[in-house]
Design brief:
This protein has 174 residues and is mostly beta strands. Helices cover 0% and strands 55% of the residues. It has no helices and 19 strands. The mean pLDDT is 94.
Length: 174
């Protein structure tokens, strides 16, 4: 079959899914998924992406961000939201070999995990009465994260290496 018009712009290297939920922009090096219950953004430093509920201003290193409802409600109504802020990570002492086909991993290495620093401003159109928590990788809460609320929108600074332990996971909940 043929693709409906307007989904692919080869000159600008922009591709949309037929539902409008997925957008790949090869010219800007960005990827975005926007659904009623989740939004995902992949973008280099210095770029901004926004969905219907969340916006990310990525400031340092390439990053992947996920905002997902954990209670099954659409994001604007959700009372429990998972937020991931992911950058490049590898085990210590990984070993690679450059081959004619690219990089080959020779050793998986060991703990501790090495994490590339990431910083971003994240804005959420969240309902009032929720708190933001930084969490460990196992989901255990580390502590509350300050944010500002202006006109029904909350904004916080995500810094994965700002405290005494790395933070890649946040929870917005009651």
């Amino acid at each position: 079959g043929t693709l409906p018009s307007g989904l692919i712009d080869p000159e600008k290297r922009v591709y949309h899914s037929d539902t409008g939920e997925i957008r790949l922009d090869g010219g800007r090096n960005t990827f975005q998924v926007t659904t009623p219950r989740s939004e995902c953004f992949v973008l280099p430093a210095g770029k901004i992406l926004a969905g219907n509920y969340a916006a990310v201003e990525n400031r340092h290193s390439y990053g992947s961000f996920l905002v997902a409802s954990r209670d099954g409600a659409p994001l604007p109504e959700s009372r429990r939201v998972l937020i991931l802020h992911l950058t490049d990570s590898k085990n210590s002492e990984c070993r690679y070999t450059l081959t004619e086909n690219g990089m080959r991993m020779d050793s998986w290495g060991k703990q501790p995990l090495l994490l590339k620093r990431g910083e971003a401003g994240i804005t959420l159109k969240a309902p009032a009465g929720l708190k933001l928590y930084a969490c460990r990788l196992n989901g255990e809460r580390i502590g509350e994260v300050p944010f500002e609320r202006i006109d029904g929108v909350i904004r916080f600074e995500a810094k994965n290496l700002a405290g005494s332990e790395p933070v890649l996971v946040y929870e917005l909940a009651e």
